[in-house]
Amino acid sequence: MRWAPSSNETVYDEGSYLGDVLDPANAADFIPFIPELNGDDRARLRLLSEGLSSCTTSAQRVQRVREALQATDGRAYRLKAALSVLLDLMRHEYCVRLRGGTLEVAATTLSSWQGSPAEYKQFQRRHLLQERDQQLTEDSVRRFIAKMETPRRHGRRSVTIHNLIGDGRAILRALSDAPAHPAGLFEKLPIQPYVQEVRTGECDSETGFALQDIWRYFRHTWTLPYNSTPGRNMQFLVRDAAQPFHPVMGILGLGSSVIQITPRDDRLGWTIAAVLERFAPALGLPASAADPTMPDRDDIARFLASMRSSLETAREETSHVGISHHNAKPTAELVERLHQLADEFSDLEYELGTSREHRSFRDERDTTLFRKKRAKAIYRVVRAQLLFDSLSGNPEDQLRLLLTTRDGRHALAVALQEQKKRHVGSSIIDLVVCGAVAPYSQLLGGKLVAMLATSPTVVHAYRRRYQEAHSHIASAMKGAAVTRPAELVFMGTTSLYETHSSQYERIRLPDELGGLRFEAIGKTEGFASVQFSPETRALLEGVTKRVRGRRFVTHKFGEGVNPKLRAIGMGLTDIGLDGRLLKYSSRRLVYGVTLAENTREYLLGMEPKPRYGWRGRSARDVERAIAAHWVSRWALPRSLREAVVSALALPARETISMSLRPHRPEVTLDVFERSHPVPLTTAPRIR
What is the dihedral of CA 349, 355, 356, 359, to 10 degrees? Predict the structure, then answer.
């Protein structure tokens, strides 16, 4: 049944169908929106809240908040920041209600959604497109797209970016004529994919366009806006050699992995829970699931040795200058002295941040920021070493003590974290962009791009790019250059939506290629900043500077993980709003693929080198085998479907051009009834 508000409760939303599909009975989902304001500003917010209930459309409600924000000057800085937060939440489909004179907000979650998962996915896509559509209206982006679509001379031919868009009808003809063997191997592949690394300054031999511009053009067709990200980044094109100009089938982007994703860390063995699950049967301890490899005493001994080595390496790679003697034996007295020293370092220079462009690693080491980081790191490591040194008995007894005592678990967690720090920036990577473009998307080309991401072409390119790269944080901690082995052994990614991601489901390479497969390993939990605009973030940081006297987050190198979230969280606290507003409405599915047979052992330091399943085969042979598998498994069956045939007959150039035009669907349903509740008989319509 459709819910109707009671006489003393007004509910309104921001341009969505929340009145129909968000269950307001779950009051725990609503967060009071009560900023700390002076008397006049508090009255202004109360009048605004009451006025919103008289609006008949979501556009009117947004406009009312926007006008109030524009009318608020900088002297009412708390009110101005609060209104900016409210406007952002309304734009991102938060449900807003006035209850007992108190304004409350609630994010839309899958658990509170009363429609179908498909409708929820459509709802999520709609609000994700907001920022992307705004980017497409920027002059620089419009000029770039126009430049790529304008004819230019290359050799004796006139070309545009449209020459790099495939011909769907030609693809259909090639697939219908393909002579396939029973095993799925082709005498000549009807579609001939290959991976091309996008390197700075290199141009496409077929059209003369810069490879970076080609990648960027197709990236703008994605749902999320195109933004550069810090850390390691690599881009690849997947192209079809079977057609003229070698059109682009899809694009692939790799980026530095997120530091903390619990399901991933469990999968890779970097958590106490993962260690317990792996070794519990051998220790006689209860566990939710036994490790199928059934580790024995030798495995336990190797694991303990790797953890001790992890602590020792961490201590060697952290400069002790100004803190302690680097060879000092771990003792209780040393631990206490390090603890006191870590507490004594002041945070005052955090506001100055740090700039690796203008300092050597040695100079970086001696800043207040890194002295504090080094003191804390050495304290944690020496404390863990002291516990490990106290262990005695056989390997099983030692590991049992580590897993069953508070101090033991703390020491083991430190050793695991140090091992993770050495690999998270060098041995694992995130698929930040992965998908197909029209017309290949009709043939589930996204699955092909995902499989090709695991190929030796990508692994070798990553090794070439980063095998001599310095790890900046580690180098600043040591005061000298530190490099890590650039051996990719794991790729992770998250789905764009909370509902199942069809692209990564059911992907498994043939056994002769190592049997690699993408696994759904959990869901993300936690917080995000996507719902807050740059203007709001600037206002919140301004509030913090006024309230606390200085900036605590400068977004500069070495400051720690998630500085944006910390800055927003401080700002929300400083205007009296609930930090739960950082809790993003959508959880995402976490996927991962292990690229080596011994991925976990390598990442735990138990084995020195990764073993890849495709070793002994050339990168081109592996790519061809992946392509043959994809054509047999997905492309050919899809090409026999009537709907796919019709879609491939349409000009893909028009499809892509349309996707590069902003489109902002408006909801046509009235979102709530004020009198008689009626059943929801039809899905909300979007024009």
Answer: -70
Distances (CA, A) of 576 to 105, 526, 548, 571, 606: 15, 21, 14, 9, 49
Q: Are residues 432 and 395 in the same domain?
A: no
State which H helix or E strand residue 386 sits in: helix 368-389
Rounded Cα gap, residues 290 and 280, in angstroms = 7
Question: Using the 8-state DSSP alphabet, how is residue 634 labeled?
Answer: I
Is residue 292 over pLDDT 90? Answer: no
**pLDDT tens profile 484-538:** 999 999 999 987 776 666 789 889 988 888 889 999 988 876 556 667 888 898 8
Whether 648 and 515 map to the same domain: the answer is yes
Cα–Cα distance, 213 to 150 (Å, whole number): 13
- Could you tell me which residues are beta bridge partners of residue 186? 180
Helix (H, G, I), strand (E, B) or coil at 246: coil
In a domain, 476, yes or no: no
Rounded Cα–Cα distance for residues 380 and 411 (Å): 8
Which residue range forms the structural domain that includes residue 106? Answer: 9-128+527-582
504 and 629 co-located in one domain = yes
Q: Distances from the Cα of 352 to the Cαs of 349, 441, 484, 563, in angstroms?
A: 5, 48, 29, 14
Whole-number Å distance between alpha carbons of 599 and 585: 33
- Pairing status of strand 248-256 against strand 193-198: unpaired
